[in-house]
Amino acid sequence: MSERRTGSDAGALWSPDEFEAAIRAVGAERYHDKHSFHKLLHGGKLSKGQVAAWALNRYCYQSAVPRKDAAFVSRVFDRQLRRDWIHRVLEHDGHGEDPGGIERWLVLTDGLGLDRAYVESMEGALPATRFAVEAYVRFVREEPLVVAVASSLTELFAPKIHKERIAGMLENYDFIDDTVMAYFKKRLVQAPFDADYALTYIKTHAQTRAEQDACVAAVRFKCNVLWAQLDALYHAYVAPGAIPPGAFNPETLNG
Fold it and tell me: Where are the alpha helices (DSSP H) in the chain?
């Protein structure tokens, strides 16, 4: 293993604290809490139809999370890592008495007046949403394990956005209540645990500066995946409002 050094040598292995700081700097610069659509959503500036468009498209991402985690587990020969990681699949798909994150997300789309079968079909999702989400699944399936783990580290920044979302949407929309916000409340507990595990893993297993750089790039890639989804929503449903053929049209929403 390369010697850990500090200083100006760009090729030196970062210390654990330096490595973490580089990861967190990506979120400070690129996380999607800075996107215009996000600010409109949390600020109460969107119609019910526009919020429904966001929830419907975001379902594509939510439903992909256990698929990307299952793809990751299928590549892992370390039994303990498989045991530790598989709970992420169960967090979303559900287990025992816990219905799971996907079901909680469908409670949100139900509450927004969307037909559940339509949401689950994803036929009304924006093309760019589908491309971005599948790019993430493919990234986790194909990249080295330590880099694939690093791509999950946008979870470091998630609790802040979830808190803003809960407060902002409950305050600003009369069609939002505690029941439909259950997904985000659960993630306030789950995301920090998952992020701490992944951060510890990459600090231990990224053993060269090139691997560390690849991990930072993975977080940047994941931020881009999230940002691209909001770009697509903004373009289709805010300005100039060019909804692609076949995609969800807010004017069709009942209520």
Answer: 16-30, 36-42, 48-74, 79-93, 101-111, 116-121, 127-142, 145-150, 158-172, 182-205, 209-237
Work out the number of other CB atoms within 10 angstroms of the CB of residue 3: 6
Strand, helix or coil for residue 46? coil
Tell me the C-alpha distance between 22 and 12, whole Å. Answer: 14
Q: pTM for this one?
A: 0.91
Convert the pLDDT of each residue in 95-122 to its tens digit: 998 898 999 999 999 999 999 999 999 9
Whole-number Å distance between alpha carbons of 186 and 238: 29
User: Which fold, 16-239?
Assistant: Heme Oxygenase; Chain A (1.20.910)
Residue among 42, 55, 2 nearest 250 (CA): 55
CA–CA gap between residue 214 and residue 211 (Å, rounded): 5
